[in-house]
Amino acid sequence: MSSYIASFLVGGAMCVIVQILMDKFSITPAMILVSLVTLGVILGALDIYDILVKYGKAGATVPLPGFGYSLAKSTIAEVDKKGLIGAFTGGIKGTAAGITGAVFFGYLMALLFNSKTKN
């Protein structure tokens, strides 16, 4: 199966599941954000999310659970290298590039486009 198709299927399945949860229950976007990142951390720490990453590639690493997965994996690696202090520095070091990119490109889009409030 093509990597593009696998990414689409895995990422799309995550989106469908979240959309169903939003439609059937009164879940706020903040609750979804926290739940998905936490789920990614838990599944990443238990090496279960590795299966999704192996087959789904970007479809598994780009959505919110992928961020949690990155936090878990980088923290575990840093704890193995530096001990307890790695629990505090691992997540930051592992996700710094993604966070920096999001802030930079968000700022760039704010400069390029004139945003308006909804009426």
How is this structure best described in words?
By secondary structure, the chain is mainly α. The chain has one domain (3-112). The protein is built from six helices and no strands. The protein has helices at residues 3-24, 29-45, 49-56, 58-61, 64-82, 86-112. The longest helix has 27 residues, at 86-112. The radius of gyration is 16 Å and the shape is globular. The N and C termini lie far apart (45 Å).
Residue windows where pLDDT falls under 50 for at least 5 positions: none
Q: Helical content, roughly?
A: over 70%
Largest sheet, if any? none
Shape: globular
Instruction: Quote the distance from N terminus to C terminus.
Output: 45 Å
Order of helices and strands: HHHHHH
Structural class of the helix and strand makeup?
A: mainly alpha
Number of domains: 1
Percentage of residues in DSSP E strands:
under 5%
Radius of gyration: 16 Å
Please, what is the average pLDDT?
91
Count of strand segments: 0
Number of helices: 6
Pfam families: SpoVAC_SpoVAEB (PF03862)
Protein name: Stage V sporulation AE, SpoVAE
Keywords: Membrane, Transmembrane, Transmembrane helix
InterPro entries: Spore_V_AE (IPR014204), SpoVA (IPR005562)
Blueprint of the fold:
Layout: H1 3-24, H2 29-45, H3 49-56, H4 58-61, H5 64-82, H6 86-112
Structure characteristics:
single chain; 119 residues; mainly alpha; transmembrane; Spore_V_AE; membrane; Stage V sporulation AE, SpoVAE; transmembrane helix
